[in-house]
């Protein structure tokens, strides 16, 4: 047993730190710090900075222009990028579609799409969920019918994250309604400019716009936009799911959130004393800190195992469940620490000397409410428990 | 022992519920709660006409109620529609004024709206170290300081402000037009205000007001807890309904035991909440009011968080949207914790009692 990172890993951490210190623009890190919605411009500029260094497609192997990092190196990168208030890399093209094309795409698709993902020329969004198909994704109904060398698509996708910025969407569509649900789904690439597509915004609980619904009416796309084989979509979706499974603990984000809550509780004064001196509040912080310390090791243990085995196993669902709960707890504390100063609607009262909350904390309540999503999407925490009880406990 | 409402209160509850269900459908609520003046002045008038504010004061002060149970009935009804009308300000104002001989007709009839400014950014719950100071000036007073997140302050004609006068807590009346009042929407809808005073003229309402303020705070806590119970019950009903309607994997999600048990846990917490509110209501005018109100606010804080978070989780994505009414109930229930003392603050009060 040895909990130290290797010499190479430590050197890598230094390299990542230096990179962020020297290359992350101040306006980007301050936007992340303030916790407001990030603009498309910020996300694109950040991607370009990483791309220049060769660090954008963190999960891609070297042959496709990725850095070829091990899971532990990826973890180090995540941790450090959080510390420097770098944005999250938008996952849809880079972390989702890229690996799918590398495994299932035709040579033509790889040659065409992968460089465009890397350069930021294409912005992808994910068209899986439908109003009737959430946890039970395999019941999806959006229909794609072959007509000569085209697909004709009809139906509706929803919850499409950042679809308002996207120009392309990858969809799971029903291509054979007469077989077992999982066996009649195909993975199809769609240009959002195609006639017959309408995108409408969905306003979230805290008032933000990050998701959309997408309607398809007789949308015609080339047959060659099919990825893999016809009716192989479910296999592809499942591959993606296992591929996504490291990094879901969000340890880096939680470590940062913990530091922020402590700093906030030192700053917020309650009756002449910093809130951190209130034993009840201090106990709440300490309690999450204990859980997070364990989560860091749980995460590394699972990364280490994944590195040895080549792929993460179903036990990584533990990371999703506990990781989101810890992060949500920290968001709760950040709101709670402010008391009534968390009450204003985001942006309702921002003028300098009128602001109620310390700098960068005006959105704490909004962030708390928005963050409830993390235990719902990407396989809800209930679905993760189902996976664990079936695949790990064999119940 | 009798846990039923008296006939009068049942009638009040029924007529309020009918009125609010009719006039405050959730779409309307969501609209007015976020657009200036962050409530609906026409409905405020009608609510007052119905007697909702008269019910908050005893007969000898011009009202027709004023007990803990009257307050509880009114606010539970308001909670059921997450009503953003600034009734809390009226309640706390009448509680304070009832320690004086002031005529309350304008307040109780709703023609004059009042908000009560107690907490400050660095003293949101415990008022012993508030910084707002009163100074004698001629035969009146002036106030200097800032009251923060004054609930309903954006819609108030008069503000009752807690300030230090010769080191003691006193209450003053400030004409809203005389202070620097900046109103805004809150994240859970409804309005509040920052009230900044700099040598602002004020009328002394009550010297040595610590007990009167505590009484107003206790009544306010009871009101908020009752509001939370109303809101939690509706949100729970919405959740159970959704569990029955929503199908995944070919069956209603309510058939999954993992969700059934959690819906039951919500029910248990709501029943506990109702009980502690009944206890606090029955003690409101007794010597241990502060202790029982602290207990209620602590329990409601914990139960509210569980109910709001579980409701969202068990709905899935739909409850994360603005359009779904449940999200607005969840926001209100969570944010109630930050008014008049949160879960931890009141736990420490119970420990000290
Ligand atoms: C902010 C946000 C962004 C999203 N972004 C995207 C996106 O970009 N692309 C995309 O395709 N999708 C996206 N999603 C959709 C997300 O994946 C779904 O919300 C998720 O799969 C859950 O589906 P649902 O919301 O329909 O809830 P439901 O599946 O209806 O679930 C409701 C409740 O029932 C529980 N439940 C369901 N089945 C079971 C079971 N068998 N046992 C126990 N409990 C169960 C769930 O856990 C949940 O608590 C996003 C969602 C949100 C909220």
Roughly how much helix do the residues of chain B carry, as a percent range?
Answer: 40-55%
Shape of chain A: globular
Cα-based radius of gyration of chain A, to the nearest Å: 22 Å
The average pLDDT value of chain B, as a whole number, equals 97
- The CATH superfamily of the largest domain in chain A is identified as Butyryl-CoA Dehydrogenase, subunit A, domain 3
CATH fold label of the largest domain in chain B: Butyryl-CoA Dehydrogenase, subunit A, domain 3
Count of separate structural domains of chain B: 3
Question: What key attributes describe this structure?
Answer:
heterodimer, A: 395 residues, alpha+beta, Butyryl-CoA Dehydrogenase, subunit A, domain 2, Butyryl-CoA Dehydrogenase, subunit A, domain 3, 3 domains, B: 353 residues, Butyryl-Coa Dehydrogenase, subunit A, domain 1, 7-stranded mixed beta sheet, two-stranded antiparallel sheet, globular, binds flavin-adenine dinucleotide, AcylCoA_DH/oxidase_NM_dom_sf (chain B), flavoprotein (chain B), FAD (chain B), Acyl-CoA dehydrogenase (chain B)
Short description:
The complex is a heterodimer of chains A (395) and B (353). With 395 residues, chain A is α+β, with helices and mostly antiparallel strands.
Description:
Chain B: It comes from Pseudooceanicola pacificus. Chain B: Residues 6-88 form the Acyl-CoA dehydrogenase/oxidase N-terminal domain. Chain B: This is Acyl-CoA dehydrogenase. Chain B: Pfam families: Acyl-CoA_dh_1 (PF00441), Acyl-CoA_dh_N (PF02771). The complex is a heterodimer of chains A (395) and B (353). Chain A is an alpha+beta fold and 395 residues long. Chain A has three domains: 7-89, no CATH class; 124-231, Butyryl-CoA Dehydrogenase, subunit A, domain 2, CATH 2.40.110; 249-392, Up-down Bundle (Butyryl-CoA Dehydrogenase, subunit A, domain 3), CATH 1.20.140. Chain A has twelve helices and ten strands. Chain A has helices at residues 7-23, 26-34, 40-53, 71-83, 91-104, 107-119, 233-243, 251-267, 279-309, 317-336, 364-370, 381-392; strands at 124-127, 143-147, 150-157, 168-174, 185-191, 197-203, 209-222, 226-227, 269-270, 273-274. In chain A, the strands form three sheets. Chain A has a four-stranded mixed β-sheet with strand order 1-4-5-8. In chain A, helix 5 (91-104) packs antiparallel against helix 6 (107-119). The longest helix of chain A has 31 residues, at 279-309. Chain A starts with 6 loop residues before the first helix and ends with a helix. Chain B has 353 residues and is an alpha+beta fold. Chain B folds into three domains: 7-109, Acyl-CoA dehydrogenase/oxidase, N-terminal domain (Butyryl-Coa Dehydrogenase, subunit A, domain 1, Orthogonal Bundle), CATH 1.10.540.10; 114-208, Beta Barrel (Butyryl-CoA Dehydrogenase, subunit A, domain 2); 212-352, Butyryl-CoA Dehydrogenase, subunit A, domain 3 (Up-down Bundle). Helices cover 49% and strands 18% of the residues of chain B. In chain B, the strands form two sheets. In chain B, strands 1, 2, 3, 4, 5, 6 and 7 form a seven-stranded mixed β-sheet that branches. Chain B has a two-stranded antiparallel sheet with strand order 8-9. Chain B starts with 6 loop residues before the first helix and ends with a helix. In chain B, 57% of the residues are buried. The mean pLDDT of chain B is 97. The chains are: A alpha+beta (395), B alpha+beta (353). At the A-B interface, strand 9, helix 9, helix 11 and helix 12 of A face strand 6, strand 8, helix 9, helix 10 and helix 11 of B. Bound molecules: flavin-adenine dinucleotide. Flavin-adenine dinucleotide sits between chains A (126, 128-129, 134-135, 159-161, 211, 373, 376-377, 380, 382-383, 386) and B (246, 248-249, 253, 256, 258-259, 313-314, 316-317, 320).
């Amino acid at each position: 047993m040895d909990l130290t990172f290797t010499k190479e890993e430590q050197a890598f951490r230094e390299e990542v730190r230096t990179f962020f210190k020297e290359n992350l623009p101040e306006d980007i890190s301050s936007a992340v710090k303030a916790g407001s919605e990030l603009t498309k411009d910020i996300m694109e500029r950040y991607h370009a900075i990483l791309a220049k260094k060769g660090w954008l497609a963190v999960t891609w192997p070297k042959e496709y222009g990725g850095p070829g990092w091990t899971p532990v190196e990826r973890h180090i990168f995540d941790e450090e990028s959080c510390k420097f208030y770098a944005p999250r890399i938008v996952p849809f093209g880079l972390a989702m579609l890229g690996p799918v094309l590398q495994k299932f795409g035709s040579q033509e698709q790889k040659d065409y799409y992968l460089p465009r993902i890397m350069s930021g020329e294409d912005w992808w969004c994910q068209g899986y969920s439908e109003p009737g198909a959430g946890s039970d994704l395999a019941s999806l109904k959006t229909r794609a019918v072959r007509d000569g060398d085209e697909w004709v698509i009809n139906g509706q996708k929803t919850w499409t994250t950042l679809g308002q910025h996207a120009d392309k969407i990858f969809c799971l569509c029903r291509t054979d309604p007469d077989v077992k649900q999982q066996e009649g789904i195909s993975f199809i690439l769609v240009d959002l400019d195609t006639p017959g597509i309408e995108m409408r915004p969905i306003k979230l609980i805290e008032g933000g716009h990050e998701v959309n619904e997408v309607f398809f009416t007789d949308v015609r796309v080339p047959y060659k936009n099919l990825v893999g084989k016809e009716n192989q979509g479910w296999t592809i979706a499942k591959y993606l799911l296992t591929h996504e499974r490291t990094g879901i603990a969000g340890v880096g984000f939680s470590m940062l959130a913990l530091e922020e809550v402590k700093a906030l509780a030192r700053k917020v004064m309650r009756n002449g004393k910093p809130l951190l001196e209130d034993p009840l509040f201090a106990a709440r912080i300490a309690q999450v800190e204990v859980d997070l310390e364990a989560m860091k090791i749980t995460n590394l243990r699972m990364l280490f195992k994944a590195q040895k085995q080549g792929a993460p196993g179903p036990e990584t669902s533990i990371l999703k469940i506990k990781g989101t709960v810890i992060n949500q707890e920290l968001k709760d504390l950040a709101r709670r620490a402010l008391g009534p100063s968390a009450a204003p609607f985001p942006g309702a009262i921002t003028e300098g000397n009128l602001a109620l909350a310390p700098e960068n904390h005006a959105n704490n309540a909004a962030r708390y409410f928005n963050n409830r999503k993390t235990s719902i999407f990407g396989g809800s925490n209930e679905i993760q428990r189902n996976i664990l009880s079936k695949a790990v406990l064999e119940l | 022992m009798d846990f039923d409402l008296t006939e009068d209160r049942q009638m009040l509850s029924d007529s309020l519920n009918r009125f609010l269900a009719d006039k405050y459908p959730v779409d309307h609520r969501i609209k007015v709660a976020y657009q200036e003046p962050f409530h609906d002045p026409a409905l405020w008038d009608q609510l007052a006409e119905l007697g909702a504010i008269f019910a908050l004061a005893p007969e000898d002060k011009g009202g027709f109620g004023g007990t803990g149970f009257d307050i509880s009935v009114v606010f539970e009804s308001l909670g059921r529609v997450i009503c953003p009308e600034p009734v809390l300000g009226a309640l706390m104002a009448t509680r304070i004024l009832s320690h004086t001989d002031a005529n309350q007709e304008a307040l109780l009839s709703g023609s004059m709206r009042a908000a009560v400014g107690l907490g400050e950014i660095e003293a949101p719950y415990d008022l012993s170290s508030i910084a707002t100071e009163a100074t004698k000036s001629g035969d009146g007073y002036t106030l200097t300081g800032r009251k923060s997140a004054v609930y309903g302050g954006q819609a108030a004609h008069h503000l009752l402000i807690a300030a230090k006068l010769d080191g003691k807590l006193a209450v003053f009346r400030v004409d809203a037009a005389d202070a620097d009042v900046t109103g805004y929407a809150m994240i859970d809808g409804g309005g509040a205000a920052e009230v900044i005073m700099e040598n602002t003229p004020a009328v002394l309402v009550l010297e040595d007001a610590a007990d009167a303020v505590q009484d107003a705070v206790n009544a306010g806590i009871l009101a908020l807890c009752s509001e939370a119970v109303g809101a939690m019950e509706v949100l729970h009903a919405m959740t159970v309904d959704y569990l029955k309607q929503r199908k995944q994997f070919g069956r209603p999600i309510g058939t999954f035991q993992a969700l059934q048990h959690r819906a039951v846990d919500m029910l248990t917490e709501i029943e506990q909440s109702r009980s502690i509110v009944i206890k606090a209501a029955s003690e409101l005018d007794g010597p241990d009011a502060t202790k029982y109100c602290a207990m209620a606010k602590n329990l409601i804080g914990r139960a509210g968080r569980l109910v709001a978070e579980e409701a969202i989780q068990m709905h899935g994505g739909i409850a994360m949207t603005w359009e779904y009414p449940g999200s607005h109930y969840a926001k209100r229930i969570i944010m109630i914790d930050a008014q008049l003392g949160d879960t931890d603050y009141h736990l420490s009060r119970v420990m000290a009692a």
